[in-house]
């Protein structure tokens, strides 16, 4: 008799029934002996099963290794060592894929998995900026009869429908995922920069921003006479986290064109805004 | 002070509850400190109205300033009006670079072209939403400030939220919005409710959705009532699956507080017992309305407790998926399938 399984009600009930019946037997010892013999037989069967499993795993590892080798070389005959070779090959491929997916997840690439209803897949795109993981966005696709997006949590200002139209998801999902990942990473990067500006730079006031974080208007205070200086950053390339255009506005019409501010303009075009502001404060350009 | 301004003040005092009045007046900032303190000392609404009327006369505050007060109140308490969601579609290429100044100028000029007498006020709220207050008039009358329309829009998103307005005004408003946001059309999004925050969060997906993942963080929601440990153990796996499917359909955490959903059925009646009804050709029209203080939470509970079958039927999961709470269900083809629009 196997050990009591608490998962199955019926087997538990039958166990109780047997126990009751065995208690009715006159002498305890013979039944106890019988019990132990049966237990030993069960354990022996389990040991045989485990031995077979270990052997199978060893064969699998061998196959995986030979599959790798086969890829590096041109046509080589695969030896038909056992009748289960096809099955083993499939299992080897499966294990390989699982390892690949885990590695992909670890380096922050796309995650993909089957949905609970079994009809499709769910892909997760991770975003990161300056070495910090930010938000993850998921997309659920049905794969039969055709690949079709069912639901997602991509925010509405990312042009997802446009990207789907421009890609061919029926043949290669990456034609959608790669551009989408660029958009999403750039968006979270810009959003993160805005958060950092608000956190680190109290003296700089954010006059305007939008949900897409594609526009930023900052108010600087200049050390000289405490004048105000307005700086507009346009991020019109949705796939970049650096601005495409920087413009200044000030009472003193000539100040924005001075050499000092031309340098600052190129600084703002090339460095993330929160870092640029730190540099500007250090150099004394702004308060 | 003329009659219409007086009526406006009275209406404002009726709308703003006494406890919010102090804060709203402070934010408005049009009363002197002395006047502010005087008003705070008063208790009855009637006396408050009298005071405010006299202060407005003294400070020479006209309709324009009073509408500011109304706007401040509505922006801070948006969950009292009835809001309707609309969707902009087919953006032009430059829709993504429309900035606030451009939108303000364009909207004001377009609406003034379309409506001969109109009063428009635009404010940008701290959460990047643009609020517009429109008082409508026509060739024969001044703008009516007692029945204004409020519009809320986030630039670069396709959603617009509007308080109730007639179909004629809707046409003019959508025209002005379409031209100033650089989209091609404005359509009804079939989502409405009293809580602006709820319908906005639903459409902008500002709640936490759940997707199947290989690396799950454990769902913190669990049925806390332990009825019987044996039932717990037996039901653990099915209960977990139900909870996972319910969360995938509706989300976790604080769900947008939607308060109603309406299904208009135009399907044939399927009743095995009643032959006459079954043989009718015309559809059996009826309207089913779900109402709750927190509709999505209660539907999710139905699914996770097993009252509604899982996987959640598309009829219910379409509410968060499509961001709608008004559905028309028609018969389409043979069999048990029915189309959803």
TrEMBL record, chain A:
* Cellular localization per UniProt: Chromosome, Centromere; Nucleus
Provide this UniProt record's keywords sorted from A to Z.
Answer: Centromere, Chromosome, Coiled coil, Nucleus
- What family is this? Belongs to the CENP-O/MCM21 family.
Presence of keyword Nucleus: yes
What name does the UniProt record give this protein? Centromere protein O
State any GO CC term. Answer: Mis6-Sim4 complex
What highest taxon heads this organism's lineage?
Eukaryota
Keyword Coiled coil present in the record's keywords: the answer is yes
Residue runs in coiled coils = 33-84
Name the predominant localization.
nucleus
From TrEMBL, chain B:
Superkingdom is Eukaryota
Q: Which InterPro entries match?
A: CENP-NAC/CAD_complex, Chl4/mis15/CENP-N
What's the protein name?
A: Centromere protein N
Q: Which family does it belong to?
A: Belongs to the CENP-N/CHL4 family.
Where does this protein have coiled-coil stretches? none
> What Pfam families does this protein's entry cite?
CENP-N
Major place of residence: nucleus
